[in-house]
Prior knowledge:
It comes from Hominifimenecus microfluidus. This protein is mainly alpha-helical. 66% of the residues lie in helices and 3% in strands.
Amino acid sequence: MIHQITRAELIVIAARLKQAQDMIGYSDERMASMFDISTVQYSKILRGHSMITEDKLIILKQEMNISLDYLITGQRAGRNVLISNQPMTEVEFRMYMEEISYYIENLPVELKKDRMMEMMRRFYKTFSTL
């Protein structure tokens, strides 16, 4: 069964694309040029009026090294620090950090303290072997 992408899903995908674009500092014009489309067409993609095509997804992966799993589904297929035994790209790392920051900012104070202690223990365990 083929999944028909809804407008709401297009808007979410567009938001992830814009987030990645902003993190690497590309203008809309540069993105449109990279995709070999007009800025008007790129604007339609960013507003969720048009889906980015498969050939543009390939360009996106090659030029910006963005996880297409994350871009399309919001999932990282169970991966966090390592993706296919390779470190996260700078864009993926920044997106991941923004997600964590947003999550923590919206927690009640007591949970923030618990989560911070848990993160510190994990960092210590991870980096103490360096």
